[in-house]
Amino acid sequence: MSALALSVVLSLVSAVAYAAGAIVQERVAVSSPDAEQYAPLRRASWWAAVALNGLGGLLHVVALAYGPLSLVQPLGALTIVFALPMAALFVGRKAGATAWRGAIMATVGLAGLLSLVGASDAQSLSTPQRITVAVVTAGAVVALMAAGRAAHRHPAVRSVLLATASGIAFGMSSVFTKTVAVDWTGGVSAADVPSLAVIGVLATAGILLSQASYRGAGLAAPLATLTVVNPVVAAAVGITMFGETFRYGSTGTLLALGCGVVAAGGLILLTTERLQAARAEGADAGAGAGAVETSEGGLEKAAVTAEPVPEPVPVVLRKGTLVPAADVLVAAAAGETVHGDDTPDDPDGDAPVFFHGSLYGGAYIPMPVVDRHRVRIKS
After folding, report:
1. Where in the chain are the domains?
2. I want to staple 7 with a disulfide (CB 3.0 to 4.6 A). Which of 66, 112, 201, 296 is the partner?
3. pLDDT score, position 343
4. How many CB atoms lie under 10 A from the CB of residue 192?
């Protein structure tokens, strides 16, 4: 197998590993309590997701060693396309047509954008540049986290904000990794220890934020956001600080902008699809249809059959028994003598029947007849 073919295979396996890790993360996020939304350390499945993401990153680095950056980086964008059918196959989570359109648009736009980024000579960042980049990155991540916390009532918006923060953290960790790798070509130095610490902090923050982004927002929208933002941020830093440029001059720049618009449109489709799904779930819950929580953590409508309310039937009291008023009226029309209930003042039950209409649609109950000639007991 040639080096080029090996790099393609490694890139595809890396994308599958990333997709599998994202699916496991989303399942863990759905079933974890709020206190563990960032780091469910007690869940073995979460550690499996971390291992899958680590395997994907390792295979991606090895693929870069055998193939050109212009080929390996776009293939990494296939993570979104692989994740949707894998989620439908293994966990039964099917994506709608809008989600598929958004995923394909994001993948095509990202692949086109990355393929247009040209390579440059290996360069490193100076110490002031590293400090500036680290401070700006930390500020952006914290601001996005605060915005996500403020948008806790809108899970889809919160998810995109946290996924963007995660993508920035991962992208900047790649920038610092490249810087350290360039420094190590001249020998390992203790001056790179702060950069290694920044890499560890950013990578950890990226994992924790990506885990939180899957909570309550499904799989497609946060995964697509993370997959797009990560390389775009790294490419932006490469163009502005490492001297990288787009291929084909101004034509390549215009094509790159078009690809960016396509990728952004895909992310918007995925986000709006999730917002519409959230509104539909809220409308179903508000309509009183009832909802039960499934093992996947989603909401599933429960079939609730409303029994018809019977119409109130007018009744009268005869000899201690409630009798439909219609029967009494029929008996009276037939010439029968109709009497009411036995009372202490009328032991023979000769009191007349009184029909009284209800105020609120209840049963017709005869009111007791007050006898004005009752004998009062005097003390």
Report:
1. 3-299, 310-379
2. 66
3. 46
4. 18
Neighbouring C-alpha atoms within 13 Å toward the C-beta of 251: 2
By the 8 A CB rule, do 133 and 125 touch? Answer: yes
Going by C-alpha positions, the residue among 368, 333, 360, 337 that lies closest to residue 350 is 337
* Among 296, 308, 177, residue whose Cα is nearest residue 230: 177
Using CB atoms within 10 A of its CB, is residue 127 exposed (0-12), middle (13-18) or buried (19+)?
exposed
DSSP letter (8 states) at residue 301? E
Nearest C-alpha neighbor of 115 from the set 168, 177, 70: 70
Q: What one-character DSSP code corresponds to residue 353? A: P
Residues 337-364 pLDDT 10s: 555 444 444 445 444 544 444 444 445 5
Task: Assess whether pLDDT exceeds 80 at residue 218.
Answer: no
Nearest C-alpha neighbor of 162 from the set 144, 175, 180: 144
Task: Check residue 349 and give left, alpha or beta (phi > 0: left; psi -120 to 50: alpha).
Answer: left
Question: Rounded to the nearest 10 degrees, what angle do helices 220-241 and 155-184 cross at?
Answer: 40
DSSP conformation letters of 136-171 = HHHHHHHHHHHHHHHTTT-HHHHHHHHHHHHHHHHH
- Closest CA relative to residue 92, chosen from 1, 143, 137, 30: 30
- CA–CA distance, 32 with 36 (Å, rounded to integer): 6
For tokens 């692989």, the residue is 82
